[in-house]
C-alpha cells in the first residue's frame, strides 16, 4: 500500500536506501563477507563471455553491470536489448553465460531469448525481483533483488537494486578467481544508502529543478560520459515515460556528430559529472551547447563540483555513482510529470510488465 504517499513512484524512490541495506544483509555470510551461491560462481568462472539480455530500465542496469563485471571479475560482457537479440544474434563465444535482468521476470521479449538460448544448450542466470517468475523458473540460476513489490510503471528501486546485486555478483565472482578489487563493497554500499537518504531529503530542490527546466519544454537532453552516459539514458527514459516530454540521452562526445543541431534557445540539458577522468570533457560539452543557447543543469559529485553546478550529489565510490546519480533524475522526472498533470503511476500506453512480444 502507498500509505501517506501520493504515488507509488515516490514511495518506491524513497525506499531505495532500505532496499540497498536489505540487499547487503541478504547477500552477507555470517562472517560479514558477501556471498553468492557456489553453482553461480562456478558458472561465472566457466564462462568465457557473458551476454546480458534485458529491456528498458533493466537494459540500462545491464550497461552499468557490464562495467562492474568487466572491472571486478575480468570477464568480457556484451549487453543486448532482448527484442533485438532473437533475430540479430551475435556470433556467440565458446562458453557463454546468459544473464537475464528483469524486475518482473515476465517480460516476453526476454523470455523468448531465454527459450532460444536454452535450446542451444547454454546456461542462464536470471536477476529478478519476483521469486517464482517465469524467467526465474526457466533459468538455471536466480539472484533476487529483495526490493519488495514495485507497483509504479516507472521502475526506480528495481534499477538501483539491480545495480547493487550486479556489483555484488561481479565482486564475489572476481574474488572466487583470486581477483581482489580495491573496493570494500559492504562499506561502500552502506555509504550509497546514506547518500540516497540525503537525496530523498532534498525533494524541494528537485521539484524546483523540474519546474525551472521542464514545466513547459517540448524536449530535453541528458548527457554524460562513461557510466554517466548510461545513467543519462535511464534518466531520459524515466522522463519520457511519465511526463511525455521527448527526452534523449547522449554520450557527451556524440553531440557534435549530429544531435547538437537540435539545440535551440532554452533547450534543457541535464549533464552528469560524477567521473573524475571525464569531468573536464563533459564540461566542455556543456559549454558547446550553452554557446548554442541551451539551458544547462549540471549535476556533479562532491569533490568534482564547479561554479554554476545546479546540484552536487554526496561523494560515493566512483564505480557506484549510478546508484545515487539516478535518484535526482528519478525525482526530477516525477516532479516534471506532476507539474504537467500526468498520471505518474500509470502513464498512458504502458503496462507494468510487458508480456507481449
Ligand atoms: O520487468 P522488466 O525489468 O523485464 O521490465 C523491462 C521494462 O519493460 C521496464 O524496465 C520498463 O522499461 C519500465 N517501465 C521503465 O521504467
From TrEMBL:
Residues 40-179, 209-347 form the SIS domain. It is found in: Cytoplasm. Transmembrane segments: none annotated. One of its GO terms (cellular component) is cytosol. It catalyses: D-fructose 6-phosphate + L-glutamine = D-glucosamine 6-phosphate + L-glutamate. It is an enzyme of class 2 (transferase). The active site is at 352 (for fru-6p isomerization activity). Keywords: Aminotransferase, Cytoplasm, Glutamine amidotransferase, Repeat, Transferase. GO terms for biological process: carbohydrate metabolic process; fructose 6-phosphate metabolic process; protein N-linked glycosylation; UDP-N-acetylglucosamine metabolic process. Its EC number is 2.6.1.16. One of its GO terms (molecular function) is glutamine-fructose-6-phosphate transaminase (isomerizing) activity. Catalyzes the first step in hexosamine metabolism, converting fructose-6P into glucosamine-6P using glutamine as a nitrogen source. Homodimer. This is Glutamine--fructose-6-phosphate aminotransferase [isomerizing]. The gene is glmS. The chain holds residues 244 to 600 of 600 of the full protein.
